[in-house]
Amino acid sequence: INAEYMGNTIHTTMSNYQELFFWACSQLGAALSLGLCSVGAAIGTGKCATAMNEAPPREDEVVELSARGGPSFHDVAQERSPLNTSNNNRSSPPRYAVFAPVVIAGVIAIYGLIVAVILTAPTSEAVRTANRAIVYLGAGLTNGICGLASGWAIGYAGSALIKAKPEAFVKMVLVCVFAEAIGLYGLIVALLSIYNLNHA
Q1: How far is the C-alpha of 73 from the C-alpha of 87, rounded, in Å?
Q2: Residue 80, number of CB atoms within 10 A of its CB
Q3: What dihedral angle (degrees, nearest 10) is formed by the CA atoms of 165, 170, 173, 175?
Q4: What's the rounded Cα separation, in Å, for the pair 200 and 197?
Q5: Kindly report the CA angle at 58 between 177 and 105, in degrees rounded to 5?
Q6: Burial class (CB in 10 A: 0-12, 13-18, 19+), 139
Q7: What gap in Å lies between CA 32 and CA 38, rounded to an integer?
Q8: Rounded CA gap, 96 and 100, in Å?
Q9: How far apart are CA 34 and CA 1, in angstroms?
Q10: In the chain, where do the E strands start and end?
């Protein structure tokens, strides 16, 4: 009886440790996915916002401001970029098009949220295994690192897009889309890992 009792106790203890390991890996995977993707999105958005502030003023905006009694185009250009006035008289991309890289960067955080929601979804006790825990952790880490790299690339590409000439605008948008695809690749791999585990 004592041996049977000890065996049941050990089995219960091991089951508790396995369940604890599963929950730790799944929560850590969700945190890495959402956290790293959010950092990537923040980097991309922050770099684009800085580029918007430093970009040369648009001629139509300054003309409108001057008509209201504001400063001239030359004064605004000098204030925006006092160290580089050679390119201040060129036109900028379309007015609302400069928000394209900001929107693209924000999508990266959505990728992290999707994987995090899947990893934290309720599961039955029968599937809380160490194998599933490791896959969950790997899926979250894969998606998070890809999202971080994607956001970093979008920040640099988006900054160049905001300051680009109108004829180069489409090319720079394509560069931002390809940079965003890095995060999409991570999302696909993470979802495939979870799907294959559920249908093994």
Answers
A1: 13
A2: 16
A3: -90
A4: 5
A5: 25
A6: buried
A7: 10
A8: 8
A9: 49
A10: none
pLDDT in tens, 5-53: 444 454 455 567 778 888 888 899 999 999 999 999 999 999 988 888 8
**Which pair of tokens denotes residue 87?**
């390119």
What pLDDT digit, counting tens, does each position of 134-155 carry?
999 999 999 999 999 999 999 9
Q: How many other CB atoms are there within 10 angstroms of residue 18's CB atom?
A: 15
19 residue type, one letter: E
| φ, ψ dihedrals at 84, nearest 5° | -145, 90
CA distance 176 to 59: 25
- Measured between alpha carbons, how far is residue 68 from residues 65, 119, 164 in Å? 5, 55, 28
CA-to-CA dists, residue 85 to 24, 62, 81, 82, angstroms: 55, 15, 6, 6
Question: Residue 122 has what DSSP assignment?
Answer: -
Closest to 194 (Cα-Cα) out of 124, 134, 106, 145: 134
Secondary structure letter of residue 58 according to DSSP? P
**Contact 106/41 with Cβ under 8 angstroms?**
yes
Considering the entire predicted model, what is its pTM?
0.74
Nearest CA among 110, 99, 115, 104 for reference residue 151: 104
d(CA 165, CA 193): 42
Both tokens assigned to 17: 């440790």
